[in-house]
Amino acid sequence: MTITFRPLILSAMALGLAVSAVAQEAPPAPSPDGTPAPAPTESETIPPIDPAPAPTPAPAPAPAQGDAAPAAEAPTAPAMTPDQYIGNPEYMLNLDLSTGGRVVIQLYPNVAPQHVERVKQLARAGFYDGVKFHRVIDGFMAQTGDPTATGQGGSQLPDLKAEFNPMPHLRGTVSMARAESEDSANSQFFIMLQPRFALDRHYTVFGRVVSGMQYVDTIHKGEPPAVMSRMVQASVAADNRPMPPALMLTDPAPASAPAAEITPDQLNAPIGR
């Protein structure tokens, strides 16, 4: 009798597959305290994926040898407060005029620092000494600061950028003269004899007369005057330059008109009764 084992082998294989399937569907074994074991979290079932490293930015190219690095902007200096300049001799300008005395001007570095520094620099260099008032309009202003006394001259320093400001053009205001360009002020300035608000924010105000205005009022008038009054000496008060002698603070007398020539006919004219 022949015995075949093939059916037995197939049966055993089928039984093994069934047991395996049942084992996979069975719930997890209880934990030691009798509670069901927690289900696996997503991080346990799916291994984490390391993120791709962020690309490293390329370093900026170094400047070529000889190339200058861009200059950093200089910080803007804060405006001065009144207690720093009002009455401070470093910001007081003395003008000793040929009309007889000293004019004292309070400078305004809080609104026109570059113009104030220019005028102080020129005064300390003696630039203004002897310079005349070449344009003086009665009821308006007296202009000076041109060593040629023509209105066309100035210093060898570069022109200044305008520093227009809210200070009004009142009697005694000192403001910088300029040409048509707003940035053409150099050394010439004018002193207001009367208010003129139309000039506000068109000319740079840098100071105001605080004493001696009577000596400004007596400057000879004209465009140009027949006899030009002058600044005998200009100085910064902090430098303590004494006033020139009184003999120097005088204007020459205007030349008198020549007497009319008397002709023989006038001598022989009959005398009226």
Describe this structure in words.
The chain contains six helices and eight strands, in the order H-H-H-E-E-H-E-E-E-E-E-H-E-H. With 273 residues, it is of the alpha+beta class. The protein has a domain at 92-239: Cyclophilin. The chain is elongated and about 85 Å long. The relative contact order is 0.16.
Distance between the termini: 198 Å
What name goes with the CATH superfamily of the domain at 92-239? Cyclophilin-like
Order of helices and strands: HHHEEHEEEEEHEH
Q: Specify the structural class.
A: alpha+beta
Largest sheet: 8 strands, antiparallel
Mean pLDDT: 80
Write the layout of secondary structure elements.
Layout: H1 6-25, H2 42-45, H3 82-85, E1 92-97, E2 102-107, H4 113-124, E3 135-137, E4 141-144, E5 173-176, E6 189-192, E7 205-211, H5 213-217, E8 231-236, H6 264-267
Antiparallel strand pairs: 1-2, 1-8, 2-7, 3-4, 4-6, 5-6, 5-7
Attribute tags:
8-stranded antiparallel beta sheet, 273 residues, 6 helices, 8 strands, alpha+beta, Cyclophilin
Summary of the model, kept short:
The protein has 273 residues and is of the alpha+beta class. It has helices at 6-25, 42-45, 82-85, 113-124, 213-217, 264-267, and strands at residues 92-97, 102-107, 135-137, 141-144, 173-176, 189-192, 205-211, 231-236.
